[in-house]
Amino acid sequence: MSDQPVIRTRALTKRYGELRAVDAVDLEVAEGDVYGFLGANGSGKTTTVRMLLGLVLPTGGEVEVLGLPMPEARSTVLPQVGALVEGPGAYDHLSGRLNLSLLDAAGPDALPRAQRRRRIDEVLEQVGLDPGDRRPVKAYSLGMRQRLGLASALMRRPRLLVLDEPTNGLDPQGISEIRTLLLALNAAGTTIFLSSHLLAEIEQMCTTVGVLDRGRLVLQERLDTLLRPTGLVAVHSPDARAATMLLGDAVVDVDGERLLVRADDAAGLNRHLVGAGVRVARLGPYERDLEQVVLEASHVEPAPRRDRVEVLT
Ligand SMILES: Nc1ncnc2c1ncn2[C@@H]1O[C@H](COP(=O)(O)OP(=O)(O)OP(=O)(O)O)[C@@H](O)[C@H]1O
């Protein structure tokens, strides 16, 4: 592994008239990362991804992919990058297999025919499509089209995969299969940069998270750092007021019946509260999840719990 970032941007900016769709973004994706690029719809993810691939020209700042400047080094960089950008394009009247074959044949260094055939079978199986399926792509569901897009991104055994909303249109089973596939590719050495508005998806597979909020990168950190222990204990008590009075400055936050208390010893805290006649319904170490971290970074009010998973949509 080299120390050089696989993706690096400096003050990357895209303006559309008055709108700063992407505003001074400094991304850093290390080799071997699964980098989750989170943001609400319209926050600028797709525009950023397109700039990484040289499909949209920045109005300011710099992009380096695999150590080379984009879009200048496009012809060297892109053959080493597998990309799936919103709405994977395909010839609707042809089968998935034929689409892959044409796509590869059109590449700068197309594989010999027999090798291409083998590789197509391999990638179709990898993404869960039947290599024998002769139906035209127009008969495909959105999920199948998404899988086909991923298959074409994999044809060249890329060093880097750049995927914009790769699980779009997939059901939970499909999402889980794609996650397993991406993790296997990553374990075999592929760096993965994927955008998503699904917190749960990012939390389950990424090593590093970047959060875009109205064009600005408001957070970029390793997931294990973000989710490390807080040193706080969450206490749920119907006597929250009494507990707050008893504990004084150790209480750092009160939200209804839930208190956050700075304490090293949860069991000791429990004894202290119960000994003073405070009823304790539940007590345990306070662990932030990614949703809370992202909401704090984005200064957005939490959504109702039922929207938990898709809170950024
Ligand atoms: N070609 C364009 N001309 C004008 N404005 C644009 C253009 N492309 C994107 N925008 C605007 O830039 C902002 C960022 O859009 P972008 O598609 O990058 O967001 P996103 O995070 O990918 O959202 P989504 O998940 O909905 O695709 C939006 O306000 C969008 O309307």
Automatic annotation (TrEMBL):
Record-linked InterPro entries: AAA+_ATPase, ABC_transporter-like_ATP-bd, ABC_transporter-like_CS, P-loop_NTPase
- Single GO MF descriptor: ATP binding
One short Pfam name that applies is ABC_tran
The ABC transporter domain covers 7-239
User: What SMART domains does the entry give?
Assistant: AAA
Print the keywords alphabetically.
ATP-binding, Nucleotide-binding, Transport
The domain of life is Bacteria
The family annotation for this protein states:
Belongs to the ABC transporter superfamily.
Q: What is this protein called?
A: ABC-2 type transport system ATP-binding protein
Q: Which organism is it from?
A: Microlunatus antarcticus
Kindly list the organism's lineage. Bacteria, Bacillati, Actinomycetota, Actinomycetes, Propionibacteriales
